[in-house]
Specification:
The chain has 20 helices and 7 strands. By secondary structure, the chain is mainly alpha-helical. Among the domains are: about 70 residues, no CATH class; about 80 residues, no CATH class; about 160 residues; about 120 residues, no CATH class. The strands form 3 sheets. A 3-stranded antiparallel beta sheet has the order 1-2-3, with no helix packed on it. A two-stranded antiparallel ribbon has the order 4-5. Strands 6-7 form a two-stranded antiparallel sheet. Helix 1 crosses helix 3, helix 4 packs antiparallel against helix 12 and helix 5 runs antiparallel to helix 6. The radius of gyration is 45 Å and the shape is elongated.
């Protein structure tokens, strides 16, 4: 058992020791070889026991010895190729996404400054912000460099036609997300305008002729991959015939012309060639997909340009609702062409690097191949398939089910194990790679499908399928490049001896661990007056307000009917008075008069009536 940090540390030490001996090894390659050594059943690292410092030093010495002693070996060249492809190859979608992320990263500091700018105090600040806005639009579009005067002038004119300086104050009043959204829309519109002006031959500074560049790049990549595949398949055919004849002479007929060591060397060369073939075919499929995608984009580009020409022809003013969507569509199509250019650039880089790794095939001696071949005919993969098109695999007497092309409508969609190579030859020939012929039938075992080079090989496999599968899995640990090539890294790791290969289960090393934590790592702080109950808090508030004995009144009106009840609680005022001794006095009556007829009468007759209280003597 090991941790990722331990593996990374050992890998760095391995790289340093290899550099001191004049051998350049990447850290990824060192980690890959370390994992292979750790999973090797012949080593002592796969027992499940934690690795100590002495084990790490021993592991580092083993890895350095393997990388330095086999610096010219075909096996190490294959491993380096696999590590390089796994770390540098990206699918079309990932390559396009990575290209767009790099474009956004170049413009992100300027965009962040624009969206976080506050209100401008004077016209000079507005003009400075507008210039930064133009530069951000150029960077986000990828059409030229903002330091070029021609590019900057053309982009400024295009932006002023859709977003004048007078609208910048309104732009500053928006929020961050609204600014980013409007900036992205302005980038698309300005890009479409610049592309349209280039098509009208009225601009186009800093804009490459991307359609022509893509056509040349596609032709070059497609031709390079097809030429490399033709040359590689010629070598692979010779190596396949030599390895097949060599292992059969040693294991079956007993008429050996060469030794097992020479056969295994040719097997490593064949594996290197087949691995490169897999990678080149994957790159060729990506190039063909890019070619079809570029053709669709170019058709859309021409159609959109013609539509814009038809909209603006003989018109001094065009509604924005009519022309803006076309400019945005034109910008999206051009971004798609830029994505395809990034994909082709990555494909070309990986393709030439694969050719460099395959130069190790030049070290195979032609005299060794001729001695292994003898009178054997060299057949290509197509010719080998035609030669094995005789008898089909007969289901009679076989324990495993057989699927024939005529019996299954989805036969072409069946996923074959071991990249379509014969598993019987793989197990008997110590990793010999001979293409299988699925047209003679496919054998199914435990939900997986296996194709064979001949019906006889299928009959031998049917006698004990588990033995052959576990033998190939064990072989992949001794020939580590087979793990990635055959995709056997998910298979069960077999035991070390041949007797233990037939066991269906193996004991798993286990160990119990315990740990103790501190009871209270943080000192406790308990507040005795703390209360979490909300009703207690309300009760305290009522007590502090001193309204326990107050009277509550509420009023319901027609406007508040059906709504939440609203109450008002108040405390009535208290009247205070004092009583003194009684005094007596005399006073004259006050004159009082009443005017009769002011209210309640229709006639205009009024008279005054005296109501003064008379004194009675």
């Amino acid at each position: 058992m090991y941790t990722a940090a331990q593996l990374k540390t050992v890998a760095q030490e391995v790289v340093r020791h290899c550099l001191s001996k004049g051998i350049h090894v990447t850290e990824e390659c060192a980690e890959f070889v370390l994992k292979l050594l750790l999973s090797d059943p012949s080593s002592d690292f796969s027992s499940g026991v934690p690795i100590n410092e002495d084990d790490l030093k021993h592991l580092m010495k083993l890895c350095v010895s393997k990388l330095t002693s086999e610096k010219d070996s075909l096996s190490l060249a294959t491993i380096k190729m696999q590590v390089y492809f796994n770390t540098n190859y990206a699918s079309r979608e990932d390559a396009a996404s990575r290209s767009r992320e790099e474009t956004r990263a170049r413009a992100s500091p300027l965009v962040k400054e624009i969206v976080e700018t506050g209100a401008a105090d004077c016209r000079a600040e507005l003009e400075g912000l507008y210039r930064r806005l133009v530069m951000a639009v150029v960077l986000c579009s990828g059409l030229g460099h903002p330091a070029s005067p021609g590019v900057l002038k053309e982009a400024t004119a295009a932006l002023q036609s859709v977003f004048p300086l007078s609208e910048l104050s309104q732009f500053l009043s928006l929020g961050r997300r609204d600014r980013e959204r409007q900036l992205a829309e302005l980038t698309q519109v300005v890009t479409g305008i610049r592309l349209f002006n280039r098509d009208c031959q009225k601009g186009g500074d800093g804009i490459d002729d991307l359609p022509s560049v893509l056509q040349r790049a596609l032709t070059s990549a497609h031709g390079g991959l097809e030429g490399g595949l033709r040359e590689l398949m010629g070598r692979a055919s010779v190596l396949t015939a030599a390895v097949d004849a060599g292992w059969r002479g040693l294991a079956l007929t007993g008429r050996a012309r060469v030794s097992w060591a020479e056969v295994e060397r040719c097997r490593d060369a064949l594996l290197l060639a087949r691995q490169q073939e897999v990678y080149l075919r994957r790159l060729l499929a990506d190039v063909e997909s890019s070619q079809s995608c570029v053709e669709e984009l170019l058709v859309g580009l021409q159609a959109t340009l013609l539509q814009i020409h038809g909209s603006v022809r003989y018109r001094t003013a065009v509604p924005t609702v009519e022309v803006y969507p076309n400019f945005i569509k034109l910008s999206d199509i051009w971004c798609g062409l830029q994505d395809e250019m990034a994909v082709l650039t990555g494909i070309s880089s990986v393709m030439w690097s694969l050719h460099d790794y395959a130069e190790a095939l030049d070290g195979i001696d032609d005299a060794l191949l001729r001695s292994m071949l003898g009178d054997e005919l060299v057949l290509s993969d197509e010719a080998r398939l035609q030669a094995s098109m005789g008898a089909l695999i007969d289901q009679a007497g076989m324990a495993c089910p057989v699927v024939h092309p005529a019996s299954s409508p989805d036969f072409d969609r069946i996923c074959l194990q071991y990249q379509g190579f014969c598993p019987w030859v793989l197990a008997k020939g110590r990793g010999a790679l001979v293409p299988a012929n699925q047209n003679i039938g496919v054998v199914s075992w435990q939900g997986k499908y296996y194709a064979f080079s001949s019906p006889e090989a299928a009959y031998e496999f049917d006698k004990d399928p588990e033995y052959y599968v576990t033998t190939i899995a064990a072989l992949a640990h001794f020939v580590p490049e087979l793990i990635n090539f055959l995709e056997t890294d998910v298979q069960t790791l077999p035991s070390k001896t041949d007797d233990e290969l037939k066991l269906k289960s193996a004991e798993i090393a286990k160990q119990d661990y315990g740990m103790q934590t501190e009871l209270h790592p943080v000192p406790s702080n308990i507040d005795p007056s703390y209360s979490w109950n909300v009703w207690d808090l309300k009760r305290q508030a009522v007590h502090l307000a001193d309204i326990c004995n107050s009277r509550t009144r509420s009023t319901q009106t027609l406007a508040t009917r059906g709504r939440l009840s609203i109450g008002c609680q108040a405390r009535p005022p208290r009247d205070a008075c004092s009583q003194t001794r009684r005094e007596s006095c005399t006073s004259m009556p006050q004159p009082r008069s009443f005017i009769f007829g002011l209210r309640g009468r229709r006639e205009n007759i009024q008279h005054v009536v005296s109501i003064t209280q008379h004194l009675h003597g």
